[in-house]
Specification:
- The protein is an alpha+beta fold.
- It folds into two domains: about 280 residues, Zn peptidases (Aminopeptidase, 3-Layer(aba) Sandwich); about 130 residues, Alpha-Beta Plaits.
- It has eleven helices and 19 strands.
- Helix 1 runs antiparallel to helix 11, helix 6 packs across helix 7 and helix 9 crosses helix 11.
- The protein is elongated.
- The relative contact order is 0.20.
- It binds zinc ion.
């Protein structure tokens, strides 16, 4: 397809052949998604699924690249530290060499999933990939084993129908999307391409912007004492109260700013106090309290700028209290430490993807802006324009997460046609 008229053109016979192959192999695709869901690939447990992925790529005839990320990556800007060593939890890539003379494409997905806890919130077994009324339930079914399965099947289908592309295709499977992005950061340094797509679950819309995300802890010291003589101690929980208030104020202030990609979204920026820990005994004055928080920020703001706003808010709150002035709270950073990113809807590959979406769905591919982060940022930082497009469902990171199976084949068909159109087809 060329040009912008999406209703009046001939579909290349190779694309038509590929579409029929995808339709005929729907059961196989769904089975592959289920296989991936069975792997309980939470942080630290990605090895088995990554070896399965590598084996699948190898069977499709791709050059496979399986490696452990070097610990020194954690020193790089925009990296994070999940607290888990990289050894034995590889990144995986499969390279399908083109015949030459075409544009190259990276197709990326992550295999890590968040914990399904608390399990008693689930109606279904989170690791069983149970299908009920065309929904596949399971942790990661939507986010994003379905996308990973599509990524794996794209080169398999190509091989089986005997289509060769001109440009190279690199299928990537990364770790740590859900906590740091380190897997994608390493990929963006290792492989170059003319464009990249991440098949995160977007329900057929296109993620063209997302916020930056940072995790941080705030530690406040108290002085422990027996509750019978509580005034001789300093209660760290009570001392945390002005800090909590200051963070709530900061959340409000951050939402007073604006960004063109996030207009019309209610409360796009969220400073969430996710964990509070302190104390271990009702009759003891707690000597330490800790908050563990997540804050988001608009693309364009740097990690350093966000850090200084947090530290300023904490400092400001401490000035109202003698104890806190003398024992300044400590701010510690861990996990996500990365800015947001945007990709233009006018990028050639986004336009082309949108044309195929429009052709197959009869409606325009809607842009969306993510109020959470995703791995696209590293490719955009590296000069490889990247956004997300994938299947639909509901409940990512929640109980009863499910994939809407009716969206899988249509998504795969859009991606397959786009891939051939972008990379170019070698005529038989
Ligand atoms: Zn995801």
């Amino acid at each position: 397809m060329t040009g912008t008229n999406t209703t009046d053109f001939d579909v290349h016979p190779a694309i038509d052949r590929l579409w029929r192959e995808i339709e005929n192999r729907e059961d196989e695709l769904n089975q592959l998604i289920a296989n991936l869901v069975w792997y309980q690939s939470v942080l630290g447990s990605e090895a088995d699924v990554q070896h399965f992925v590598a084996g699948h790529l190898q069977l499709s005839g791709l050059e496979t690249d399986v490696w452990d990320i070097e610990e020194s990556l954690k020193e790089l800007p925009e990296s994070g530290d999940s607290g888990v060593p990289f050894e034995g939890r590889p990144n995986v890539a499969g390279i399908q060499r083109g015949a030459g003379g075409g544009r190259s494409l990276i197709v990326n997905g992550h295999v890590d999933v968040v914990s399904p806890e608390p399990l008693d919130n689930w109606t279904y077994d989170p690791w069983a990939a149970e299908v009920v009324e065309n929904r596949m339930y399971g942790r990661g079914a939507l986010d994003m084993k379905a996308g990973v399965a599509i990524n794996l099947m794209l080169p398999r289908w190509l091989r089986d129908v005997g289509i060769q592309t001109r440009g190279d295709i690199v299928i990537q499977s990364v770790i740590e999307e859900e906590c740091t992005g380190n897997g994608a950061l390493d990929m963006s340094r290792r492989y170059q391409a003319d464009a990249a797509i991440i098949t995160e679950p977007t329900g057929g819309s296109f993620t063209q912007a997302h916020v930056g995300v940072m995790w941080f802890k705030i530690r406040v010291k108290g002085r422990s004492a027996h509750a019978a003589v509580a005034p001789t101690g300093v209660n760290a929980i009570s001392k945390m109260v002005p800090i909590i208030r200051a963070l709530e104020d900061l959340d409000r202030e951050l939402n007073e700013g604006s960004h063109p990609s996030f207009e019309g979204i209610d409360h796009p920026i969220n400073l969430n106090i996710g964990v509070m820990s302190s104390g271990d005994w009702p009759s003891t004055v707690p000597g330490m309290a800790e908050l563990d928080c997540r804050v988001s920020f608009y693309p364009g703001k740097t990690v350093e700028e966000m850090r200084s706003e947090i530290e300023q808010a904490v400092r400001h709150a401490s000035q109202t209290d003698n104890w806190l002035q003398e024992n300044p709270p400590e701010v510690v950073y861990h996990g996500f430490q990365s800015g947001g990113s945007t990709v233009s809807m006018d990028e050639p590959h986004v336009q082309l993807l949108g044309s195929w979406h429009q052709y197959l769905n009869g409606s325009a591919m809607a842009p969306r802006s993510g109020t959470g982060t995703n791995d696209m940022r590293y490719f955009n930082f590296a000069g490889i324009p990247c956004g997300c497009y994938g299947p639909g469902g509901a409940g990512p990171h929640a109980a009863d997460e499910y994939l809407d199976l009716s969206t899988v084949v249509p998504t795969a068909k859009v991606l397959a046609a786009f891939m051939l159109d972008w990379c170019g087809i070698v005529d038989e």
